[in-house]
Amino acid sequence: TKEILDKILPYQGYIGVIALIWGAINLLRILLHFGMMSMMPVLWLILILAGNIVAVLLGLILGYGLIAQYVLNNSPAARQRGEEWRSKLLPRQVNLGWAGIALGLIGLLLPILM
């Protein structure tokens, strides 16, 4: 796995930004269509919400280098705030990664089992 991770490492920022955008768009879509909750079982709603929140948080961690370079570069206050957020999220990176893996597996297996 170390060899595979070493190959992916240069693309970490891009993967993070994609996960951040994807998770944020899905969260907005869910919140805008919250009225459909009566059609969606609560379990699915929880899985979808949790999965997208984890995707956004992991996207922020992984894509922080690119975000800081292109978005936060002009404002020292924004860069400082971004560093604060990153320092709060970084210790939780491994747990978020495991949560992402678990939610992904549950999301893949649940339709097969039901």
Structure described in brief:
The protein has 114 residues and is mostly helical. It contains 6 helices and no strands.
Overview of this protein structure:
The chain is mainly alpha-helical and 114 residues long. Helices cover 80% and strands 0% of the residues. It has six helices and no strands. The longest helix is centred in the N-terminal third of the chain and has 21 residues, at 12-32. 15% of the residues are buried.
Instruction: State the low-pLDDT regions, or none.
Output: none
Share in β-strands: under 5%
Instruction: State the assembly state of the protein chains.
Output: single chain
From the alpha carbons, calculate the radius of gyration and give it in angstroms.
Answer: 16 Å
Main sheet overview: none
Number of helices: 6
In total, how many beta strands?
Answer: 0
Helix proportion of residues, in percent? over 70%
Q: How far is the N terminus from the C terminus? A: 32 Å
Structural class label: mainly alpha
Element string (H = helix, E = strand): HHHHHH
In round numbers, the mean pLDDT is 82
Q: Which geometry do the CA atoms define?
A: globular
Protein topology:
Layout: H1 2-8, H2 12-32, H3 42-62, H4 64-70, H5 76-89, H6 93-113
